[in-house]
């Protein structure tokens, strides 16, 4: 399509001028996106204002950007008589549109737009889509880093709790036992008996405090919502895969397509995946592989995590979900990771079991009930 240049204008100059406007628009959009000191909404608003001057008839051009439920538009956009658009696609999902229109038709044509203008619009949409993808990826990374720091703090508290239990239980039991024995003596003066009773009461309270420390791994009541297990697996692996590559461990996903949703607390399920994967990483001493598979049947959803690590003996396998049980050296593990996993899964009405043989790795299978009313079927692997 030839450009609709103004009457009397040099066609070559007109084409050059339009081309400069398009390049200026792209440059300005890239500058706005790079302005990280601005909030995302403000950058999108400025991009919206940048578009109309780049079109060949800027006096009647208007623009609108729609992202999810938010709309950024020129004041007179609703009166646009003709428009063109390009989609905003973030992580493979259609999230919105960028539209440019004319409030009055400057040329006597059904389509007043040029192919170059559509190409410009699609270029801007691509830049904005990448910008949103990077922003949301950074947000997810911050959330996952906080969760990993939280997991590390839990491990530290677990180590402290185990230390307190071992160091305090024995002397506390002795204090409590001797005080109770002394109280059974009928010759104890009333004031001494009263003091001994205070010792017994204080010892019992201290023992309860120790019990509470040892039970710290029990999760808060889950905030249940319908969520997708495949997405939770991907989010949990977002940071862990880098550590795996550093130790020559590869991750293989077999995530069922169309996986039905589960009613669960996504933060707690992510903690389950993280703990299972970290446990697998620690079991692999050299190059190895960790497989993660999701699947579904009529009754529920399953996550299978298997590794090529050192495996476990039957004696170890019987105790892996016991709190504070660990085969690691002192200071290297608290024995809380798998007990936390077991607590979360059972709280969600699910089950988890493990199989293993020495030298042949381990396989953990977590099973959760479907979300109420879930109708999707799992078909194939993705």
CATH second-level architecture of the largest domain: 2-Layer Sandwich
Beta-strand residue percentage:
15-25%
- The level of helicity is 40-55%
Q: How many discrete structural domains?
A: 3
Contiguous runs where pLDDT drops below 50 for at least 5 residues: 329-335, 375-382
Main sheet strand line-up: 6-8-9-11-10
User: Treating each run of at least 4 consecutive H or I residues as one helix, how many helices?
Assistant: 8
Largest sheet: 5 strands, mixed
The backbone outline, from C-alpha atoms, is elongated
- The CATH homologous superfamily of the largest domain is called Histidine kinase-like ATPase, C-terminal domain
Compute the CA-based radius of gyration.
32 Å
Order of helices and strands: HHEEEEHHEHEEHEEHHEE
Distance between the termini: 43 Å
Word description of this protein:
This protein is 47% helix and 19% strand. The chain is α+β, with helices and mostly antiparallel strands and 382 residues long. It folds into three domains: 11-139, GAF domain (Beta-Lactamase, 2-Layer Sandwich); 142-214, Helix Hairpins; 225-369, 2-Layer Sandwich (Heat Shock Protein 90). The strands form three sheets. It has a five-stranded mixed beta sheet, covered by helices on one side. The longest helix has 69 residues, at 115-183. The radius of gyration is 32 Å and the shape is elongated.
Topology:
Layout: H1 11-34, H2 40-50, E1 61-67, E2 70-73, E3 82-90, E4 93-102, H3 115-183, H4 190-214, E5 225-227, H5 229-246, E6 249-255, E7 262-264, H6 266-283, E8 288-296, E9 300-307, H7 314-317, H8 337-347, E10 351-356, E11 362-369
Parallel strand pairs: 6-8
Antiparallel strand pairs: 1-2, 1-4, 3-4, 5-7, 8-9, 9-11, 10-11
């Amino acid at each position: 399509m030839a450009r609709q240049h103004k009457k009397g204008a040099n066609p070559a100059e007109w084409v050059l001028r339009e081309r400069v406007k398009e390049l200026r628009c792209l440059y300005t959009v890239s500058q706005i996106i790079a302005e990280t000191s601005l909030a995302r909404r403000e950058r999108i608003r400025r991009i919206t204002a940048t578009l109309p001057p780049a079109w060949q008839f800027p006096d009647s051009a208007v623009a609108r950007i729609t992202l999810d439920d938010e709309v950024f538009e020129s004041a007179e956009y609703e009166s646009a008589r003709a428009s063109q658009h390009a989609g905003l696609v973030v992580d493979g999902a259609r999230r919105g549109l960028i539209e440019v229109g004319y409030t009055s038709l400057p040329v006597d044509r059904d389509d007043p737009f040029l192919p170059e203008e559509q190409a410009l619009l699609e270029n801007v949409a691509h830049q904005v889509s990448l910008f949103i993808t990077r922003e949301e990826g950074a947000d997810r990374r911050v959330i996952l880093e906080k969760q990993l720091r939280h997991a590390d703090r839990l491990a530290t508290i677990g180590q402290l709790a185990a230390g307190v239990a071992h160091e305090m239980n024995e002397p506390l039991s002795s204090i409590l036992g001797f005080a109770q024995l002394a109280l059974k003596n009928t010759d104890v003066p009333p004031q001494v008996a009263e003091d001994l009773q205070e010792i017994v009461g204080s010892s019992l309270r201290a023992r309860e405090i120790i019990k509470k420390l040892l039970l710290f791994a029990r999760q808060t009541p889950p905030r249940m919502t319908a969520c997708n297990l495949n997405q939770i697996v991907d989010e949990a692996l977002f940071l862990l895969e880098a550590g795996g590559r550093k130790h020559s461990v590869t991750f293989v996903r077999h995530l069922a397509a169309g996986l039905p949703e589960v009613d669960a607390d996504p933060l707690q399920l992510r903690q389950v995946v993280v703990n299972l994967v970290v446990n697998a990483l620690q079991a692999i001493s050299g190059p190895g592989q960790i497989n993660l598979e999701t699947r579904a049947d009529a009754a529920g959803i399953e996550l299978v995590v298997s590794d090529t690590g050192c495996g476990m003996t039957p004696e170890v396998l019987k105790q892996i979900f016991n709190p504070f049980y660990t085969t690691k050296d002192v200071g290297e593990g608290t024995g809380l990771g798998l007990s936390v996993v077991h607590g979360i899964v059972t709280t969600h009405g699910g089950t988890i079991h493990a199989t293993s043989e020495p030298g042949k790795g381990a396989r953990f299978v977590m099973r959760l009930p479907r979300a109420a009313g879930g109708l999707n079927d799992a078909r194939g692997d993705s």
